[in-house]
Structures are given as structure tokens and as C-alpha cells.
Sequence to fold (208 residues):
Amino acid sequence: MGLVFDLHLHTRRHSACSAIDESLLIDRAVRKGLDGLVLTEHHYQWTREEMDELVDTSGHPGFILLAGFEYSSSKGDILIYGLDPEQVAAFEPGRPPEVMLAKAQEMGAVCVAAHPTRAAIPFDERILDMPFEALEVKSVNLAPHEQRLAKKLADDLGRRVTTSSDAHRLEDVGAYATEFLNPVQSMEDLRNSLRHGTFRPYSVAGQG
Ligand SMILES: [Zn+2]
Ligand SMILES: [Zn+2]
Fold:
């Protein structure tokens, strides 16, 4: 068995929309059977120092805590992994998704389309030509029919899929997760894994 990560969630420290107390996060993740988390705040990326402090005070010293960020384009949200925290400032909200995807990938990031079929904030037909490394096809913010649509879209486009919680409440952390078949320990490992497809949706007990 590989390492199980939740790749998409928000804490109240850096996302005003989230109720998650970051000090409780890692313990909750461990109880859900996760090996790691990737924090993806809206337009903010946790620094390594912040994350080290959270792990150090969690009581779970081996826990793998990484960070990307979630970019809100003019049409759809993009999970961006592998940039430095100070590079986030170059991603002004509300720009065209295809432009910002290309920019992030040129800077060395890997990108996942967040809840691509969510009725409230979908991508439009431009997603057909956007070279995401993967599409997120399940989260607590995708209704069952939206999950089916997202999976069909990914299949039609030949894109790999991730499943993650997009948690904004502690009880949702790990509701969905992704399993990596190689030993991911760093953002570099995660980026390579997402590029090369060494991952698959992970079925968390009690979830579809
Ligand atoms: Zn949010
Ligand atoms: Zn999100």
C-alpha cells in the first residue's frame, strides 16, 4: 500500500471561508488514516517554517505536511503545486484560466483542476484544451452527479484523476484522498508523482 494524501483543504489561519483550526488538523488526518496533507489555501501558500511548527506541535512528528495554493481564475479554480510561497503574488485572482495554467506550468508547477464540474464555479469549454496534470473528480464540494460528470470529462480528455476533500470543516478532512504508489516525502516527490501518474483515487472507509 502507498501513501495516502488529502491534496486539497483550507484552514482558518489563511482562508476566511474555512472553519478548520489548524492546530487540530494533523491529529484529525492521522485518525482518518492519512499519511500526509497538502494545504491549498486561497491565494496563499504556507511557508516551510509555518508547516514545520505545526508538525512539531502536533504530536505526530513523521507526518508529511506540504503546501500548494488554490487559484481562482475568471472561470474555474486551479490547484497549483510546486511554487515558492512568494511566487503566489504573481497570480492575480480573476485572470483567464488558460493563461494562468500556462504561467504556473512554465514556472515549474503541476496543476489540478479543482471541482471542474461544480455548478457554481465551473470551467467552460476552454478546459478541453487545458493541459492539467489531473482533474479532481471527487470532493465534498462536488455533488454526486457533478462527480460523475467530472469523471466522464476526465475519461473523455484522457486526464488522470485525483480525489481530495476540499475540506473547510474539520470533520471533512480526509473525506476523499489520493494514494501515491511511491514514497512521497516532499513537494518535489509530489510534483514528480503527479506528472508521472503514480497515484490513484483512494477509497476512504465510508465514502464512495
Ligand atoms: Zn474556500
Ligand atoms: Zn478549495
Observations:
- The pocket of zinc ion (ligand 2) is lined by residues 8, 10, 40, 70, 114, 166 (CB under 6 Å).
- The helical segments are 22-31, 48-56, 97-106, 144-157, 187-196.
- The mean pLDDT is 95.
